[in-house]
């Protein structure tokens, strides 16, 4: 199996339902991102109350040939209390083979595709049977329904367990200049050791980077402004370049309806950030120098 290939920046689709777009507007967004080189789209079965994959698939059906230019990522394993899932009396996790298989089949129907490029387990499940799940993944791969597998929000030991049963391609975790856990809890160290590039959700701290009223946010904004002015880029480009500078080679996700946001994000892939500027931003976030 070839190594997982994603675009340098991945488009997060989780807000798509809230944009209230027509199918033609959704298609224009997909095409506009793809034309810029942002060809990977991150989904989950639960997004938009189980509606986003269907909205995306409806748009994609307007130009079926576009599918082969894209990489479609989905996640499963969270069960919501929702009219779309009337049997759920409580929010819970489910990584049983039956649920994962059913979720994949539903995602394929909704996205109007015959395969997922990547499937992630959305959250760690205390009742996950690693052998059962690995066998399920093998069946899905053998049937051509999923090409690569990974996890999302797994700790290094949780990732190690499943990876010991079947090779995983990525761990999608939170990281930003206001959330540094992945640098310190072994997540990025494990990613380098396994040569397993992480995906990063909320790389701009869900907008808190520019709105949060905290000492750390104020320090980070000031240093972002100073360095970005010197380098001739925007603070957003710089914040993403800070993540991309890490040798774990992460794939950040952005979730904006504005195509200009993709240009700003992709500019980060061309920014040569020095080691000293990287540590200046780290120090701004932590409020201290290295020891």
From TrEMBL:
A GO cellular-component term linked to this record: cytosol
NADP-dependent oxidoreductase domain boundaries: 8-281
Domain of life where this protein originates: Bacteria
Pfam families in the record: Aldo_ket_red
Protein name: Aldo/keto reductase
Highest classification ranks of the organism: Bacteria, Pseudomonadati, Pseudomonadota, Betaproteobacteria, Burkholderiales
